[in-house]
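Run 4Fe-4S ferredoxin iron-sulfur binding domain protein through structure prediction, thanks.
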Amino acid sequence: MALKITDECINCDVCEPECPNEAIYQGEEIYEIDPDKCTECVGHYDEPQCQQVCPVDCIPLDEEHPETNEELIVKYEKLTGNKFVG
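Sure, done. The structure for 4Fe-4S ferredoxin iron-sulfur binding domain protein is below.
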């Protein structure tokens, strides 16, 4: 499942550079996450890095974009061109 950034975002700029898929970008008012690029850091890290660094805890799972772990692995492989090693 992709992650999303809620309206509680304070535009602190710490999440964007942590995203290995470049899924986080500055939206009109707050940072946003492109669900087509978000793998919850599957393939890169054990936990989503944006959630780890967010000081206001405003990055929950995006219920509108449900994905299984297997789907996230396929997305990781497609985005990076690397084979998943778990």
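The chain is about 20% helix and 5% strand.
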